């Protein structure tokens, strides 16, 4: 009738059958969004209960850090910037007392704090956390390089001895030993 073989009536934009399919798709998509929000709410509530349990324990643990970091992530997904930031800051504060300063988790938390601040339009406050993450990465790379060199020396000890022998410090050591 109107050039549409799918239905008998036309409302100017969609034929009735296509319009119903479109409305069903929109309803389904909205249902998925609501389901996702529900999942985030349930996750946040469960993690909040876990936080309440571990905060009753006087000692700081990696478990507490993991829970706070997960809460920070869920809060970020829920677009609750302040809660996310507070949870990440608490997690970082605890973690710094539990691991080496250049631990990858410290780097990760600094980076996540930087992201939260950036999303919250606090770019100037984010910069130090980004710089700290980069600095810690450089430190970690240097330490890993030293460990790699040490491992290589254990595999081939003669090569490291020849390097040390050429070093002026070794010459000073021999000189001191000779006169002691």
From TrEMBL:
Q: Which InterPro entries match?
A: NASP-like, TPR-like_helical_dom_sf
Q: Does the keyword Chloroplast apply?
A: no
The protein's GO terms of the molecular function aspect are: histone binding
The terms describing its cellular component in GO are: nucleoplasm
**Among its keywords, does the record have Repeat?**
yes
Q: Where are the transmembrane segments?
A: none
Per UniProt, the keywords (alphabetical) are: Repeat, TPR repeat
Q: Name one GO biological process term.
A: DNA replication-dependent chromatin assembly
Q: Which domain of life is it from?
A: Eukaryota
Q: What is this protein called?
A: Uncharacterized protein
Per the UniProt record, the source organism is Dioscorea zingiberensis
Print the organism lineage. Eukaryota, Viridiplantae, Streptophyta, Embryophyta, Tracheophyta
């Amino acid at each position: 009738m109107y050039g549409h073989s799918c239905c008998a009536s036309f409302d100017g934009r969609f034929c009735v059958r296509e319009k119903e399919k479109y409305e069903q798709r929109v309803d389904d998509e909205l249902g998925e969004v609501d389901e996702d929000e529900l999942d985030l709410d349930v996750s946040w509530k469960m993690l909040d209960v876990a936080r309440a349990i571990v905060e009753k324990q006087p000692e700081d643990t990696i478990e507490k850090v993991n829970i706070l970091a997960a809460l920070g992530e869920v809060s970020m997904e829920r677009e609750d910037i302040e809660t996310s930031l507070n949870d990440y800051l608490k997690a970082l504060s605890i973690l710094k007392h539990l691991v080496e300063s250049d631990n990858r988790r410290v780097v990760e938390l600094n980076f996540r704090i930087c992201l939260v601040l950036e999303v919250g339009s606090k770019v100037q406050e984010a910069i130090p956390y980004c710089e700290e993450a980069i600095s810690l990465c450089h430190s970690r790379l240097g330490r890993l390089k030293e460990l790699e060199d040490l491992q290589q020396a254990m595999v081939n000890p003669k090569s490291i001895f020849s390097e040390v022998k050429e070093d002026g410090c070794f010459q000073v050591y021999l000189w001191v030993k000779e006169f002691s």
